Structure formats: C-alpha cells, structure tokens
Amino acid sequence: MVLKLIKNGILIYFLVFSSITIASSEHNRFNNFIELTMQYSINQLDEEGFLKSAKNLKIANIDSIQAKVFYFMVFNHRRALADKLGIKVAVHLTDQDWQELKKIDAVMYGAQKATFVQLHNSDDLSIVDALKDLKAELIALDNKQAIAQVAADLAQYYSLYKEDHLSALIEYLYAIDSLPTYENSLAGYLYSKEFALQRIISSFYTMGAYETALDYVLQLYALSNKYFEVLDYSTPYYEMTFVLAHAKQFSKALNIADFYLQKVQKERLEQSSQLYAVIAKSAVLIKRQQEGDLKTAQSLLLNAETDLNSDNYAVKARSLVVKILLDSINGKLPEAEKSVDILKEFIQSNRSIFSQSDLRDLNELQKLVFEFLGKPELANKAMMDKFEFEKDFMLSAFNNSLNNVGNYLQRDIEILALKGYKAETEKQALKIETQNLRFLVMALIITMLIFLISWLIWRQLSIKKIAETDSLTGVMNRRAMYTWLEKRKPRNSLKCICLLDLDHFKQINDNYGHLTGDEVLTSFSHFVQTRIRKTDKLSRFGGEEFLLVLDSIDKEKAQILIDNIRESFQNYINWHTTTSNFSTSFSAGIIEVSGDFELKQVLAQCDVLLYKAKENGRARSESACFEV
Length: 628
Description:
This protein is mainly alpha-helical. The chain is built from 27 helices and five strands. The chain has helices spanning 2-7, 24-41, 47-57, 65-75, 79-85, 95-104, 106-119, 124-141, 144-160, 165-175, 193-207, 210-222, 226-230, 235-246, 250-266, 271-288, 293-302, 313-329, 333-349, 356-372, 376-422, 427-468, 478-488, 505-512, 514-529, 555-570, 599-615; strands spanning 495-502, 537-542, 545-551, 586-593, 621-625. The protein has a five-stranded mixed beta sheet, with helices on both faces. A hairpin with a 2-residue loop joins strand 2 and strand 3. The longest helix is centred in the middle third of the chain and has 47 residues, at 376-422. The termini are far apart.
C-alpha cells in the first residue's frame, strides 16, 4: 500500500502551500520542485533527470520557513544529493521552526508534521496517538483543510495497519467535506476526496454493506477520471465493480472494469493486477449474462496469464480464481469445487499473507459460482458463511472503535470550547462551531449504533430470505411455499392451486446444455411473475416444476390466465446462452379450492391433472374443483 512507502523511508509529500512568505515566482518554482521530488521518490525520475530539472528551477536561493522544513524532510538522509543541488539542509528542526511554520501555513504544517510523526515513531500506537495530538492542535487553529488532511492520515493508519475499519470510517467521514478533489489538489491523491471515497467504499464493502457503499461508488464514479489514471492497484477497481454489479448497474461496472483492464495492459502492470482485472470483468459478465457475455468472459479467462505454481501468493490465488470461473462457465462443477477447496486451504495456510476479508471474498466467489451452476444449497451455505464472518467482523470492529471514537472526538469538542473562552469576540461563532462538532460526534456514534442494529436485522432477514428462496430463479422454494400455504389454509377464500411443468425440459438440457436449461427456468419464472398479482405466489417446486397459488379466483379465470402466460412464453425464442432459436411451453394442472383443505391431497389432485395434460399432448391446462 502507498502508506508503507513512508514507513520504509521513501518520502512522498502531499502539500498545499500558502504564498504568504514566498514571492509569486519563488512560489511557482517551489511547487514545481515539490512535484519533481514526488516523481523522484516514486521512481518516475532517475537521479540524473531529477538533478537536471531541479537545477533549472534554481531552488537553492529560496529562503523561507516552508523551504527549510521541506528541504530537511527530503534531504536529511540524502545530504549528498542536496550538496549537488547547492541546498543547505538544517541539522535538525527546532520547535521554533515548527511553531513558525504553523503560524504562517497551517496546512503545510499539518502535512509535514504528520509525515515527521510517521518517520520518527517506531510503533503504530505511538503514531496514532501523535496524529491524534496533531489533529487536536489543528482544531485549536480552526483550519478545516489542515484538520481534514491529518484526519485522512489517521484513517489510513486505522484501515491499513490496524484494520480498524469503523474508526477509519469515522475519520474519513469527518474529513471528506473539507478535502479537495484530486484535480484541484496540490496535496496528492492520498489527501483527495476521491481517495477518501475509495476508502469509505472499501470499509462498507468489507462490512458487506453494499447498498450503503453504492452511494459512495456513484459519487466517485461521477468525479474526474484523472484520479483513476494515477490509481494503479487493483483492489479499489474490483470493489467498485462488485458493488455496481451487485446493484445491477452493469454498464457502470463494465466501464470501470474495462478502464482498469486497458490500464494494466497499456502500463504493463504486474501479473497479479492483470489477473484481478480479468476476474473483475469476468465476474460482472457472469452475473449479467446478456447475449455473448459468457463467451466474452470465457475468452478473457482462457487468455489470462495464469500460474498455479507461482511463488507469488497473489498470482497463485488469482490464478485459482480464474480456473474456478472458467470451470464454472464450462459446466465443470467437480473441478470448480476442487479448486475452491484448494484456494480455501491456500488462504488459511498463509494467514500472515491473506486477511480474514480474503476468506469472506472466497465465500462471495463460491456463491457466484454455485448460483451460476444451479446449486442453491451450496450457494446458500457460502452466503451463510459470509454472513457469519461479517457478523463477527462488525461486532469486533464496533467494540474496538466505540470507546476510542467517543473519547478523542470528545476531546476535539473540549478544545473548541476552550478556544471559545480565549476569544470572547468570536464567542458566538465558536459556540456554533463547538455545537456543530458535538452534534457530529453524537451523530456519528448514533449512526454507528443504528448501522450495527440495522445491519444485524438486515442480515437476519437476508438469512431468512436465502432459506426461503430458490437461488436460480429467485422465487420461493418448496419449503417456503408449504409454510405460506399452511398459514393461509383456514381462510375461507376462493383460490386456485396450479402445478406447472415445462414440456420436454430434459431435451432442452441435452440439446443446448444446462446453462440454457437454467436460462429457460429463470425466464419462465420471470414471465409468470410479471403476469400475476402481488397477492399471488409462485414457487419452484423442484426441477422444472413450479407451484402457483392464485388468490380469489375460480378455475375458469385461472385457466384463461395460465393459457395467456403460455401463449406469451411460447413466442419467446431468443436465448442469451445459445445461438439457436427455439420455443418451449408448459403443461398445467389446476385445482380450485375454498375453505379448509389438506395440502397433500390438493397437490396429489394437481399432479393427476398435470399428467392428464401431458397425456393429451402437452402445452395445455386441465382444471377441476377439489374433491375431499
């Protein structure tokens, strides 16, 4: 991650400068020198190119506190390089230097001091505490942009080193309104609104809160593409495409996936990034399944440069994912399941390399694969495992974060309150500012509580829905339909119970493949659902059989409705999973019931009528009244 570059001693500076003490021409030269330094630090310029360009800027004669601090930070351990440029580097920075810088340029002070803190503290806890102190110091100065930059530093540390996603989320939400967009920032992308949005998305993604993450994905998607041009690691692209695809915003998901795929190819990024880009686009195509999508995904996966025996952990893991997706498209369930087991074992055996979130992502992969292959029980188990991880993650994160957030944000409030006593002339404005911050703290804590409670309720409802839903077609399963009917039996209302069975379905599977068979099942359920009322219920009863319950209707009207559905379905001949055009139909057995009834007896009579419809030539309905 980018932040690790700082800890390894490779200095990258993200600064915004005021021109209070630097003349306009010097100010421009100084900012240009900062840009050169950033390029040199991340190896975009070699030493010879850096020296040549820097000498042309004539920066040695710039005399200001900003220059003094910056030169020390850049050249303290590179004094030979400074000598070649004729720059005099201070032996050390005094407290007076820092105070002078803070007085004339709070934003630069905050950025430089944050970098200084990270370089001169040996452990993460000391760094976090020092950054908290720095943030409190800047709150007393009432400089929102400086506060936001240090809050962004804190957030990065929480998420990247401590994996405390809730505390990171609080800091990013605290900072985001005062951070400039990347296009308008001289402070680099780590301190941009786009980067904060990206980290917020990642936090919600890890929590499984995809609907909440979507709001921030759409905000980031709407901003300038210049940010994406400098973003060269794969995780944010994958998370954004996943969230958009989950929300069925496939066009936007594919736009991002295509952009990153082109980027890794054009810039020849590392192999693991290339594989991740292929996986991201293929997963969107598999989820969307429009005409030609599976062939495109298959081609992408076949041409991916995989290495199942690689010494690079990311390359090996992503190569296995490519194999799993390819086996799934080719209908090779045993091979896909075997590769999933190998990948799970590989991740669990290398926990120092992989995080707990990687196991959660593996559950998402399993769910995608098993849904695609028409294995609802396995898909549901994968989803349950993912829910269990997210529950443990959320409870742990909440316990770790709540006291921390409450304590030091309350200190921020107290600093503003004390400042109010010292500046009586600004008392009213500061009182409002203090109240605003107090409201923010309370709102954030309440939001965390509401989010946790809502998340737990939503997860419980989701688990219930998964248990009651057929994962292929999205309609109720047999068990859920039984439960629903049992609750409604005592009502003395008229209804029709209809058993529907697709004609010659085995031939469809044999002639066109199981993927096309699955498409026929999903299309059929969609046709039925769009033509019945909200009070009616459809369930997949098993295989190619569906049970339809029509409320407050007699058998004559029920038969007319079902015949109309059949006529519409027979006209559908264009399928996404095959180039062949064909039509299909279904037979139906309809029983009219009123008052109490024994469900098994009703279903048995439905089955007799369905068999009669099949015997009489298929593509027809037979109906009768329930006989006790």
